[in-house]
Design brief:
alpha+beta, Topoisomerase I, domain 2, globular, 4-stranded parallel beta sheet, Topoisomerase I, domain 3, single chain
Length: about 900
Amino acid sequence: MNVVVVESPSKAKTINKYLGPGYKVLASFGHVRDLPAKDGSVLPDQDFEMLWEVDGASAKRMKDIADAVKSSDGLFLATDPDREGEAISWHVLDMLNKKRVLGGKTVKRVVFNAITKKAVLDAMAEPRDIDVPLVDAYLARRALDYLVGFNLSPVLWRKLPGARSAGRVQSVALRLVCDRESEIERFVSEEYWNISALLKTPRGDEFEAKLVAANGKRLQARAIGNGDEAGKLKALLEGASYVVDTVEAKPVKRNPGPPFTTSTLQQAASSKLGFSASRTMQVAQKLYEGFDIGGETVGLITYMRTDGVQMAPEAIDAARGAIVDQFGQRYLPEKARFYSTKAKNAQEAHEAIRPTDFNRSPDKVRQYLDADQIKLYDLIWKRGIASQMASAEIERTTAEIIADNNGEKAGLRAVGSVIRFDGFIAAYTDQKEDGEQSDDGDEDGRLPEINARENLAKQKINSSQHFTEPPPRYSEASLIKKMEELGIGRPSTYAATLATLRDREYVIIDKRKLIPHSKGRLVTAFLEGFFTKYVEYDFTADLEEKLDRISAGELNWKQVLRDFWKDFFAQIEDTKELRVTNVLDSLNESLAPLVFPKREDGSDPRICQVCGTGNLSLKLGKYGAFVGCSNYPECNYTRQLSSEGGAEAEGAALNEPKALGTDPVTGEELTLRSGRFGPYVQRGDGKEAKRSSLPKGWKPEDIDYEKAMALISLPRDIGKHPESGKMISAGIGRYGPFLLHDGGYANLETVEDVFSIGLNRAVTVIAEKAAKGPGGRGRTAAAALKELGEHPDGGGAITVRDGKYGPYVNWGKVNATLPKGTDPQALTVEEAVALITAKAGKAPAAKSKAKPKAKAKAAASDDAKPAKAAAKPKAKAKAPAKKAATSAKTKKSEE
């Protein structure tokens, strides 16, 4: 009997069926160990020794694997076919060696690009050894990311309170978003005019021609800069006669694009399906792992983490056969198409993302997939089969027209395209669905029959005013494309990098556009000012190239780390002498448009408008940066930075207090203000002034006198409880809207309830709260959002539920919270099992207070040195355990 180690339990079950009774397939559930999330896990002074830690759930899985290996004939490491998969195999082998269970048994590495019986059996027939250079590249990357994160982040915490973290790739991606925002802020719009003529042929067909020349000169794009100039040219055309000078019909071939890579799939899924990068990868993972179709579990697509665009020869042959069957012989090119990637640092050995069987069209598998899965599979299938189809044949017609007004001439041009043969476009239901365009510009409409030297009749002259627009903000898709062009990051890390920026609240996604949050811009400005080299695009790309050279066996990974650490550590040390005032001065200048937006009255935006003499400047508080007056404490004016980096952002900072009216009882003025914690209303002035923050969802621009009075009057007395005789009041607190009665609180559903709830309803809410008992006991279980089926180990069904603190996975008595940003409806059984296992594995550790020796022993099973770390006080060992448990869910590390 041979043991085979894969990553996911669903994959293990499928592969076990393929291999038969002579094999036992076990799942590692991703990474089995990780670097503890604490300082000292990578030791530069000890030649970058790395201290790994195993969480409880992974330790149990490794014990099961070790026990199986003891009685086996050999071990096959069949984790995913990428750098991370190679690393997982190395970790498993290293831990088994330390457990001394191999005893000279045969150990081989196998990789398959698709979960089909043929792919798996072919891979088992051609095993190899672990790719040591690829593992070295993983170790170097892991150490670099750790060293940057755990040395740079504390600098941010000390010098820039409110900042959460910095990362090697994360910070550069954030810089791209922030640089684009700065471009938008600096952009100056320019006026331009377009002029066209609606003309009619002698046969009565109308078409439009655009003005391209006047007064003997060719007009460049946006050359007509004002209305006066446009008016003169329009007048020329109004009185002109028109004749066709030349007509040229030119055949153009339009070629299909290559099959998808990770990044192009993420881009296409974003633009066509509205999927985020992480959502795309979740769905693709399920398509790769497969479905039960016709009594057999088969993977529908090849491995989805790749930057290669080439397909295997047998896949090309299968695609060509499917083209003939489904489209006809004419759609098959004479020779197969071969592609090479243009992406920087691409690894050509990886195959593109494609269907495992081109005869398995979307219509044939639709019944087995949910809505998102069929959408993504449809995208992949069409792109894959189109990549091997014949070119589309297009006839592009250009008509040059002369307008003559008493000897004053102008030139117009009409362009149209006609598809003579659709070729690969036939694979798409919408001819523009693939998002490609011809090499010579935008697609044009079809022209009527136009002949040279014939006269045309003028129908109408159109002139339209336009203004140049700033560059668009990045979407997830366009940011991934830019990162790929620059050679920043790797395909497997793009989704995680974007998720980190969202989770750190460095960027906000609004209408699928990435808008830098003020804290993200502060971090970027700080790094650009004091760690310039480490957020440069070229430096990061060059480091990626070195990592790829390590994987090719061309560079020594330890030497790359030594070279990096020498300069980086010196830069970190230099910041110890950096004063916060130096930081603020630098940020005031680099972020001037954000910190000091222009005022409508044209006054100096850096002068305090309250006292009139103080200078405004960035200030750093416990919860982040805000703008304050230099005359503090005499002048206590403050305002927050716009959360989305622009003056038009929701909740944008108020430059000065806004008067709303006077309290009829106290006679004090009511004002709307903005402070470091957000917008609020205030009654009166000075330290005794009463203040009330705006509830969540309330916008400053919607606050009027009535709303301000309602807020400032809280808490609101509703009436006396009929049984206790004590007053019931409603208010808004730290945890939201509430009722208060006899020292006890009951939550209200909405802010509006605070102002509208009556006595009868309030008594009912308080009674319902009392029935639940302390801590909410007695409440019914949350309704299931999704049923995932039975747990592989038995013990009941797994469900996804919505709780007080967000969605969670439930199995029996185990509840595991979903990571932030996870879509509950997209969660798979495998992901749920990993979360449950990780949660269950952490439970004993929490109770091991009286058993320090047992705890140290568990850690020692991996490595003698981590055992020392595990023997430290509980408070320091707890955080790494959480980190390791989380990493068990997914093997892809953040950068």
